[in-house]
Amino acid sequence: MHCVTKVELSVCGSNLLDRDVASKSDPFCVLFHDVDGNWVELARTETAVNNLNPVFGVKFQVDYHFEEVQKLKFAMFDEDKCSTQLYEHDFLGEFTSLSIIVSNKNLHRPLILANGKPAGKGAITITAQELSDNRIITLTLCGRKLDKKDFFGKSDPYLEFHKQGDDGKWMMVHRTEVIKNTLDPVWKPFTVPLISLCNGDVDRNIKVLCYDYDNDGGHDFIGEFQTTVNKMSEAQNGVEVEFECINPKKQKKKSYKNSGVIIMKSCKVGIDFTASNGNAREPSSLHYINPMGSNEYLSAIWAVGQIIQDYDTDKMFPALGFGAQLPPDWKVSHEFAINFNPTNPFCSGVEGIVQAYSNCLPHIRFYGPTNFAPIINHVARFATQALQQDTAAQYFTLLIITDGVISDMDETRHAIVQAAKLPMSIIIIGVGNADFTAMEFLDGDSSALRSYTGEEAVRDIVQFVPFRDFRNAPKETLAKSVLAELPQQVTQYFKQRNLSPSNTMPE
User: Does Ion transport count among this protein's keywords (predicted)?
Assistant: First the structure.
């Protein structure tokens, strides 16, 4: 499974270098990503006029690939000319980051100049928000009788939307366009991810602030109000919802009523299907079941399962998945029953596994990272119970089918070294065209596998086979290669423990 998720990155700066003589810098941020060793621009924010501590309204949305090393660079520039060419603007510093951004959620780092020296006290803060909820919200707003703030004109109003975090702090999530010289603005409809606006919680507080835009960056505060998506959603089918725009400093005056009214003309919540990651209905997904009713996962299950099931008396197999978000709370699981019955994950024969797999796909969201250790330890618990019987009656084979680079290599190595002491073997089939170097390392054919503590596996229990080598070969060829080492691994284990097969035939 190819693990991709959409991530939204919010950027703000602090204590930026002041490059302008008569005023402060006019910073904007540019996001670059690494393409074959070259930095290529992905997107840029708006310009924050005359501001050394900008909070940018434009958000960066990037596809985050869990199994890949992704290099991103955030560069700050001071806008000097009306030009899109970056060399026309003064460089204020940059920060180069990897996936550490996502793991930290809120990252604060100093900016560095091109010569490697600190950019004064300049710093950048990057906040990552995973867009796992694919609902979107479209808002249409206008204002009426807003306060007049300009001496020679009316006001140039715009709105800022802020959500309240779990820590109680407010974070800006959207800024509208500026409507020039009016007290009755009509803003363009805009759409934002629901998770960006309120973390997917329709009852979470949202603060809306109204400002009068000034060219010198000293924007005048008009007023504010608080609401929720639930409240805004009342604006549907021609019904409008009004919010009084309040300036707290003016509220003390007896004659003060409000600083105008913000009207929610329309609020619509929908689902953005294009944001769904790893859609099994798309031909680009390895889980896509083609018109012939197959994919690489199913081919691997059939090829190996049809042979190995004959060595199981009741042909009841536990089938587990990992690296997916499960309903109803969409938490990530690295060890779940694909029949959604955790107390009885067993499937009847290969047909039962295939059926459970096909039924499971529409109800989960592919995710990551690719962690093997939980699944290995799960089977190892059963093998440990069998070990207590001190007979050669049971041996466990774990078949892992994956397309990913292992994320928990240290934990996986340790789990395999411990499992080598138990009556179990591990077969790994790699599907797709990923880099499977790590899988071959786990195979241990060239040298004994060691855990991160230095402990050596007492025997080789892993067999890895890349499916692509057998894509056009008869399925019997794949099965033969996959199962080649299994008989020796079984007999080696029981010989080491001086155990002989039971003479009792199963009924």
Answer: no
Distance CA 260, CA 222 (A): 9
pLDDT digits 0-9 by tens, 70-111: 788 898 988 876 666 776 667 777 766 555 676 667 788 888
Alpha carbons 30 and 419: distance in angstroms, whole number: 49
What CATH number corresponds to the domain at position 350? Answer: 3.40.50
Q: Is residue 112 part of a domain?
A: yes
Classified as helix, coil or strand, 227 is strand
User: With contact defined as beta carbons under 8 Å apart, do 60 and 50 qualify?
Assistant: no
**Which parts of the chain register pLDDT below 70?**
1-4, 21, 65-69, 81-84, 87-89, 95-100, 102-104, 132-134, 271-282, 284, 368, 404-405, 445, 501-507
- Classify residue 125 by burial, with Cβ atoms within 10 Å: 0-12, 13-18, 19+: middle
Q: Which domain holds residue 143?
A: 135-273
Amino acid at position 498, single letter? N
**β-strands 241-244, 261-271 pairing:** antiparallel
Give the chain's domain count.
Answer: 3
- Annotate 294-309 with b (16+ C-beta within 10 A) or e (fewer): ebbbbbbbbbbbebbe
Which residues on neighbouring strands pair with residue 35, listed in sequence order? 38
Contact (Cβ atoms closer than 8 angstroms) between residue 486 and residue 398: no
CB burial string 166-205: b at 16+ within 10 A, e below: eeeeebbbbbbebbeeebebebeebebbbbbbbbbbbebe
Q: Are residues 121 and 139 in the same domain?
A: no
Q: Please, how many CA atoms are within 13 Å of residue 461, restricted to the half-sphere of its CB?
A: 28
Contacts of 467 (CB under 8 A, 6+ apart): 296, 299, 300, 429, 430, 431, 432, 478
Task: Based on the fold, state whether residues 161 and 187 are members of the same structural domain.
Answer: yes
User: pLDDT value at position 276?
Assistant: 35
For residue 350, is it within any domain?
A: yes
**Residue where a domain stops, chosen among 89, 107, 130:** 130
What is the pLDDT, as a whole number, of residue 481?
A: 83
Helices 296-308 and 349-360: crossing angle in degrees, nearest 10, is 160
- The secondary structure of 118-156 as a DSSP string is EEEEEEEEEEEEE----EEEEEEEEEESPPP--SSS---
Residue 484 to residues 290, 304, 476, Cα–Cα distance (Å): 29, 11, 12
Q: Of 228, 217, 106, 219, which Cα lies nearest the Cα of 162?
A: 228
Over the chain, what is the mean pLDDT?
84
pLDDT given at position 277:
36
pLDDT of residue 503: 57
Please compute, for residue 3, the number of CA atoms within 13 A of its CA located in the half-sphere on the CB side.
21
Predicted TM-score of the model (pTM): 0.51
